[in-house]
Design a protein that fits this description.
Elements: H1 2-29, E1 46-47, H2 69-88, H3 103-110, E2 120-121, E3 125-126, H4 128-137, E4 141-142, H5 159-162, E5 164-168, E6 174-178, E7 185-189, E8 193-197, E9 202-210, H6 214-217, H7 219-233, E10 236-240, E11 268-278, E12 281-287, E13 299-303, E14 315-324, E15 331-332, H8 365-388
Antiparallel strand pairs: 1-11, 2-3, 4-9, 5-6, 7-8, 9-14, 10-11, 10-14, 11-12, 12-13, 14-15
Helix pairs in contact: 1-8, 2-4
């Protein structure tokens, strides 16, 4: 009889542990904050695209060629991190759709140092770090509705090349004026009439930084740092050698081993939105800025963990400070005390696995418990029969 009791206790303990794992994951799914990205077990595959939390794509090459990949990589990442942050916010003050940024404004006011630092331009290029720094100094990257992308340097930095509005006049001409950056205002239009405007929306950068690269800590550890940053707050920007991308169609891009090259040998900036495994090969999922007719609807895949094309050599990120129109519909990313805004569960919460033990989805909790109970009684009956004989 003692053997029977010990076995039954062991079965019961197993069932309780299994159920505890289910409950732990249920609690995780409804948490108000993402789990600690430093300690949580990383999934084998993850993409923000799978959770419909990426904003639309850009094309740097129209209406004509412009070497501003650095600006578009940064723009993609900021837009996506803002969309992810908005999905986590309770009662978002900004009620507009996806907030996109005006890349041309960066070229206008950051193509050369106009007081906020030089971000880069079409002819010389630049870096994602310089773009993030410019956006932070500029007190927010203006909305894409402020100024159309023209793939042009030298348009100058003034009120009406930062954000403008134009209206027709009775004479058939049109009048244009600068939209204010920080206060509501009214501007002359239509032969003496007035047209009211509100402050333009923008995405504010609070801080920015560089992740440890392959040269500092090795490709594998650099890969993990990139993964944890992506899953913590959203996509990042990475430098790489663009040669394999020039002929890329689909699948994993042709191998391009570093062969002693480093971050200074890169010539392109892309957004990294996730990772996965295909046919036993680990890859990064990237978004390019060459239009949706490039690659897999504007996205592509590059080998992961081996510094292929030097993609793990230099990756950067930005912390979102807020979004929207100041004084009208602005949502800060932290409160007055610097604490993070109140968060709600997100569609991405299920990518996380408990740091200890396997993962069981909440929908399977009842099944797990039922199986454990049935196993308990079957074992009990078998042991009673054996003892009786």
């Amino acid at each position: 009889m003692r053997t029977t009791q010990m076995l039954l206790l062991a079965l019961l303990a197993t069932a309780q542990a299994r159920l505890a794992n289910v409950r732990a994951h249920e609690d995780l799914a409804v948490t108000t904050k993402p789990p600690d990205a430093k300690t949580t077990k990383l999934p084998k595959s993850f993409s923000w695209r799978d959770h419909n939390l990426l904003a639309p794509s850009w094309n740097q090459h129209v209406p004509k060629y412009c070497g501003a990949c650095f600006a578009f990589g940064a723009a993609h990442a900021l837009q996506d991190r803002t969309k992810i942050a908005r999905a986590r916010v309770k009662d978002d003050a900004y009620n507009g759709p996806d907030l996109l940024v005006a890349v041309q404004v960066l070229l206008n006011c950051g193509g050369e140092d106009s007081g906020w630092g030089k971000a880069g331009n079409c002819h010389e290029g630049g870096s994602a770090t310089s773009a993030y720094k410019w956006a932070k100094n500029f007190k927010g990257w203006p909305s894409a509705t402020c100024f159309p992308y023209q793939a042009e340097d030298g348009l100058g930095c003034s009120g009406d090349t930062i954000c403008r509005n134009c209206m027709p006049t009775t004479g058939g001409e049109h009048a244009c004026w600068a939209v204010p950056g920080d206060a509501g205002d009214a501007h002359p239009c239509d032969d003496g009439g007035t047209c009211a405007t509100s402050p333009y929306p923008r995405i504010v950068v609070a801080e920015h930084g560089k992740l440890p690269g392959s040269k500092e800590i090795g490709a594998q550890k650099a890969s993990e740092a990139i993964q944890r940053e992506i899953i913590r707050a959203g996509p990042v920007t990475c430098n790489l050698d663009a040669e394999p991308l020039l002929t890329y169609v689909n699948g994993i891009a042709a191998a391009n081993p570093p062969l002693g090259r480093g971050a200074n040998d890169t010539d392109h900036v892309v957004e990294v939105v996730g990772w996965g495994v295909a046919d036993g090969k680990e890859f990064w999922e990237i978004r390019n800025s060459w239009g949706e007719y490039w690659g897999e609807a504007g996205f592509g895949r590059v080998l992961r963990g081996v510094d292929d094309s030097m993609i793990e050599s230099s990756c950067t990120y930005a912390e979102i400070g807020g979004w929207g129109a100041p004084g009208v519909s602005y949502q800060a990313a932290s409160d007055e005390d610097g604490d993070a805004i109140e968060l709600v569960s997100t569609p991405a919460s299920w990518v996380w696995e408990p740091a200890v033990g396997g993962v069981v989805e909440p929908s399977r909790a009842a099944v797990v418990l039922l199986v454990a109970v049935v196993a308990f009684f079957v074992a009990y009956l078998m042991l009673r029969r054996r003892e009786a004989s």
